[in-house]
Amino acid sequence: MSIEAMKQALEALETYHGYMEPLTTVFGGPRVPAEQSTTGKVERAITSLRIALEEAPAKQEQGEPVGYFKREGDVWFQYYEDYPVPSELTPLYTTPQPAQKPWVGLTDEDLNIAFDDTQEGGGFWEFGYAIEAILKRKNHG
């Protein structure tokens, strides 16, 4: 859910709650336990939306997803943080994410350079470190 949609939902629920509060006072409390009443559900939804709106900017600044979704047919379902995040879920970001560079492997020339650099007194570990250095340079600048 976008921040704008959360704000609209919060405003609608607060408006509804503002109308319900006086009616509850005039006609008495709910005939079901408070946590099962419509007013109780609206109050919990208002609290959840306020928390989500407070957390959303922090997640945006950190580049974290604000939610996870799964498509089933033509419908997208949101999964909340208290559920495990299976790999088939799609993260939703509110800011564009940087494109990931494709992995660049070693060429035969790279392997020859690494091997040649470790021939004089080098061994297995030095060869591994030489390969690691080449891969870091090629993939991380």
Structure report:
The protein is mostly helical. The chain has 3 domains: 1-61; 63-97, no CATH class; 108-140, no CATH class. It is 55% helix and 10% strand. It has a 3-stranded antiparallel sheet with strand order 2-1-3, with no helix packed on it. Helix 1 (3-27) packs antiparallel against helix 2 (38-62) and helix 3 crosses helix 4 (124-140). The mean pLDDT is 77.
Which features would summarize this protein structure in a list?
single chain; 141 residues; mainly alpha; 4 helices; 3 strands
Which percent range fits the helix content? Answer: 40-55%
Q: Largest sheet, order of strands side by side?
A: 2-1-3
Main beta sheet: 3 strands, antiparallel
Query: Based on helices, strands and strand pairing, what is the structural class?
Result: mainly alpha
Approximate strand percentage: 5-15%
Instruction: Compute the separation of the termini in Å.
Output: 37 Å
Number of helices in the DSSP assignment: 4
Please tell me the total number of domains. 3
Average predicted confidence as pLDDT? 77
User: What is the succession of H and E elements?
Assistant: HHEEEHH
How many beta-strand segments? Answer: 3
Low-confidence stretches: none
Globular, elongated, flat, extended or rod-shaped: what is the shape? rod-shaped
Rg over CA atoms, rounded to whole Å, is 27 Å
